[in-house]
Structures are given as structure tokens and as C-alpha cells.
Prior knowledge:
This protein is α/β, with parallel strands linked by helices. The protein is 41% helix and 14% strand. The protein is built from 8 helices and 7 strands, in the order H-H-E-E-H-E-H-H-E-E-E-E-H-H-H. It has helices spanning 3-10, 14-22, 39-46, 89-102, 109-122, 179-192, 198-204, 208-225; strands at 29-31, 34-36, 80-81, 126-128, 131-132, 148-158, 168-175. A hairpin with a 2-residue loop joins strand 4 and strand 5. Helix 4 (89-102) packs across helix 5.
Amino acid sequence: xxxxEIAGYLKVPSRTVLWMAQSxxxxxxxxxxxxxxxxxxxxxxxSGGKNVLNNIASIPTIQEVGQSAKLPYPISTxxxxxxxxxxxxxxxxxxxxxxxxxHGIIFDPHTYLSLLLDRENLVTTAIGNxxxxxxxxxxxxxxxxxTAAVIGICKKGVNYESLDGMPTHLFVxxxxxxxxxxxxxxxxxxxxxxxxxxxxxxxxARTKYEVIALxxxxxxxxxVQC
Length: 226
């Protein structure tokens, strides 16, 4: 199957599948300048070895955000870090997982941190434009309670080995416990945070509620375009 065919099959944007192929997240082979996908291998990857393709569209979108606000993205004000301290990757990731640990989403912070670092050793999760999307390589072994995101803003910026060589300011940690959930939230994240100026906009936010407002606007824009 081609890149466009597998994107339609998975019901996610082509750019998300391309990034996953380039980073080794999805079974793929590059033939010349084109990526090729074997459907049986993708099915097995999706089902975690059961060889059964789950219906991605049937998985309910997580709506609950905080106590009153709702938006189609698993974030809340208590999982937003406005003043992320600059430092090496381990220091950044250690800060990012703390809100998820506090709320019982991550059960074993030491193991989870190790899994995140293992993923970074494969290829950086800093995708450019000042944004990084840290996550584990295999969510099936991550042992997290539910799908959730943690956002960290580092106004000073850090060297996170970004693909474009520029400092990273905005970090979106994705916590998932299944490949299907990971695929859905990764695709959503790539759409919501795709704009070239988005990291600067988040750095200008003064409160966590302004961050939520930015996500809400981007989510609405994505929904309208889809």
C-alpha cells in the first residue's frame, strides 16, 4: 500500500503516517523515494499481535477536560507547566511526567522516564518549529491509566535535537496505553500543533486558561477543516 492508501485505511493525515514511517513507529519500507506498507504487517502492529484491525473511528474521543471546560483533546489546566526549566532531555522529561504521576495516570515514573528516553535514542521527537511530542515507542508496555497529554512551555528554549536544528519551546507529552489510542492522539496533536507560529503563541500565553483557549481554537479549526 502507498502512503496515501495507508493514511486512508487508518483514517489519519498523510503527514502523520509519513512522520511515523520516518521515525520507525509504523511498519514500512522505503523503495526509492516512496514509502510502502504491507497491510498484514500494519494490521498486526495495530492489534498488538492479534492480527485483527480495530475500528479506529469507533474509539470515543476523550472530552473531559478539568471540571468544567470541554474540548476534543485530553488536556486540563493541572497538566500544563507554564515555566518548564531548561536542561537536558532527562530533566525536561522528568518535569513533564510529574503532573501525570500526581494524578495517577503514570504508575511507575522511573520506568516511564526510561521508556521515554529509549524513544528519544531512536530518533528525536522534536519535530521542528519549536515543538516536541515526547512519547514511548511501544504504548502497550507503558502501563499508564488512560490517554492523556501534558503540555510544558519553556520560554528560554532548549536544544532538544530538533529536526530543523532550532531550539524547542513547546513540549506535548502523550501518555497512551494502546497503539490505537496512540495513533489517534498523535494524529490529533500533529493537526492541532502544526502551524509554524504555534510555539511562539504558547510562549506568549500568560495563564493556563490562555493555553486551553489556544488548544480550543486549534481544535475547532481542525474540526472545520475536516
